[in-house]
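Structure ticket #2291
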Amino acid sequence: MKTRYNTLDIVCVITELQKLIGMRVNNIYDIDNKTYLIRLQKPDGKAVLLFESGNRLHVTNFEWPKNVAPSGFSMKLRKHLKNKRLESLSQLGIDRIIDLQFGTGEAAYHVILELYDRGNVILTDHEMIILYVLRPHTEGDKVKFAVKEKYPQNRAKEGEIVGRDRVLKILENSKPGDQLKKVLVSNLEYGPALLEHVLLKHGFASSTKVGKTFDINQDVDKLLVALAEADSIFQDAKHKQFKGYIIQKKEERPATDSSEVEYFYSNQEFHPMLFEQHLNAPYKEFDSFCLAVDEYYSNMESQKLEVKALQQEKEAMKKLENVRKDHRQRLVGLEKLQEEDKQKAELISRNQELVDRTILSVQMLLGQQMSWVNIEEVINEARAKGDPCAMAILKLKLEINHITLLLHDPYGETDDSDQEGIEHGKIPSMAVDIDLDLTAFANARKYYDQKRSAAKKQQKTIESHTKALKSAERKTKQTLKDVQTITNINKARKVFWFEKFYWFITSENYLVIAGRDQQQNELIVKRYMKNSDIYVHADIHGASSVVIKNPTGNPVPPKSLNEAGTMAICYSVAWDAKVVTNAYWVWGEQVSKTAPTGEYLTTGSFMIRGKKNFLPPSHLILGLSFLFKLEDGCIERHLGERKVISQNDETLSEISENDLGKDDDIEVPVLDESDEDEMKIKEQLEQEEEQGKDDMNIKSDKPNLSKQELIQEDKQEISEFPDTQIKIQHFGGTRQLLIEPVMTTIETENEENVIYLGDDKPVILKPQKQNKGRSRGASESSYKEHNKHKNNVNEESMRQQSQIKRGQKSKLKKIKEKYRDQDDEERQIRMDILQSSGMQKDLRKSKKGAKEQQNKHLKREPRVPKPLEPKETNEDYDDEPTAQAEVDMIDSLTGTPLEGDELLFAVPVIAPYNTLTNYKFKVKLTPGTAKRGKAAKTAVAMFMKDKDITSREKDLLKAVKDEQLARNIPGKVKLSAPKMQNLKK
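Resolution: structure written out below.
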């Protein structure tokens, strides 16, 4: 297949693209590291110019998949070319180098595209100083292609006049026997297709050889006429637009039913005109050369898949034909064997006396204990004397106690040929092996037995032939169907940009990527990580750089942070060493490439500035599963599959109707255990509450009160500290507790009462010796009035207050100082923000169980990251996919396909096992001894035997290549799954 331009193609495409001159650059995108798109526009039209280093340049009408984040080269091109006009588009000399100039004067920039060898794309300023080069290298000893070097414009070849002297010199320098076409192609600029066209047109075959079928003296004038026509076509291409042609190859598609013949047309070459050598080949014609090239390259991948499928179909049909051929040969062999055994038996019977005498003679010689050599000499002497027995012996096989006799039909005519004898029922002469231990009759019977055995075998073969052939045809049809299905799936297969990295999607729909090596670590941080993203790294040397993509800028929940931390640990040396360690997260803006000393770090190494937020240790447990790409119409059915689990979704749903009445008001405070200080304080306060309370369900028969008031009143009624109120408030994504002591009395050794009225200064009440009862009554009165005004509590509850324990006074003072500025509105806002990220508690457990659960997870839940304001950058992301587009991309992938979903393809994914809880297919991976490839195949085989799998899902799993299955597994593994042992058996 043709993959790059020749010189004539470049001339034709430059002529056609002159219509783009004057259009402004709207934006620039990159498809891959060698292919770029330039979007041009003018008031009356738009165009998209596509160029690929080393291969092509043309206008495209197809929608090409663009990288989500632009490459460094794209950003450089945008910086210098955006909003500038395309001023000129020309070829340097007659070489395959194209110069695109944008802007004029000192504001001019050049994009130089090299379409030969490995190719290159170079951006220069108006003085041809290189600003950016796609492939830096040195050509020769002096010419350097690097930034700040000057691009050498004189390096392109200049055209020469094709005259008689030049052609004669080319021919004289060639070797006798060289093909004429190859000699001309390497010395002239017309290209192989155009030269072959003019040579054929003027009577020179493709196999014409210099010095043999081509005479330099006689045929040079005819060759000059042909080359003059080539030059004329070449010059015309510089001034007028040519049509486009795609040359195809017709191939018959194999089919099990011979009546159905299908043909497949594969694209082979593209040309600006229909050449002589392609007149008899199928082709497609287009109005312009660019249209033909655009069609050719857009279908190239699908064409490759079709050709590969065609080869697989041919191999399947070849196997079926081999089965048929093998059956036919087996039947023919059995029939021939029967006929030979029958003839041998009949010859022995008709020569019975001769056979018996020969057997007896040889046995006598053996009985005399003569050596085999002497026996052979005796037989030769007897043959010379005309002994009939000796003359019948062809060969001695005494090692197996056999002799070979040449037997003739004594009733046949010697003049008849073998074929004529067979036609008349006569047996020709034949060499027959005779067993010396058997008589002639016994030897004949042995051959008859062999004939009967072969006849029975033939009958069984004939009986099984139909069944075996039908089975082979059925397998072949299924193979053809599978090949076509997999081909269609692979055509629809879209390779996502993140698949080149380690990746997975968290339980809460965040995309996580990690580098496979140091170069990818560098690429992820420099190109794909933004300030709002989260950088996660295992606390171990050489671990992969993990980035949580956070396009919305909202806080990343702790569950996603923990899952990313598990990934960071598993993709490190901890997997092979089976060591559990910690990971930490920081904001993207905390990651720097420069050390504090100003030293630039090595590839894949980064400096973390500021505080590291450590995550709890994670187990080395991953899972293998599949995500299925949904058709656009089915995506809506799966929205919310991976979402942040909110308090209302799970916690409240766990409260059964038997525990609560229909009119009950429920307020379930979700505690944020990520704040260690708050948890300790909360735990101490809960220890003071009622010990007989068995569960944490909150009930109330006062529907007129608010939820918060119900909680406060209940706690006031049952608490040992009825005057202490606990409020939960939120600041920037973190939950804080507000303990507000309404009024607390402490009896000191000097019998002084210290009253806290809600401010910073305690009021000390000293007992008076005189009127002691009055003084006490006054203090109780003010105490009641203050509590009634502040907390709306009754007099009886105030009398139940007890003495504060040792150390509680200073703690309450610190708490009051910390949370004194909070009000109810701010507390409610912070509760809403953190509603989904707190630890989900089982409300039906006892209070003791709840405290144990809190202690278990203490210091393990990470702090919820707060959203940061992204810093302003000079990068231009106009018309780039927005954050919502990135979310929509991963929303189109589901691990739980529903009945009726239209699935396009399957993508294997390796993720922390907890992430795959709801996936349809999953298997657990832990460090072990099994090789990655074998483990992946075993997992897929298990999925294929799932009783709930559909035929479409089977086809999608079959279409996944083996290298895609195992490439993200961190190392040697152990598989764990239900019924795994049954599968192995």
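Closing remark: The mean pLDDT is 76.
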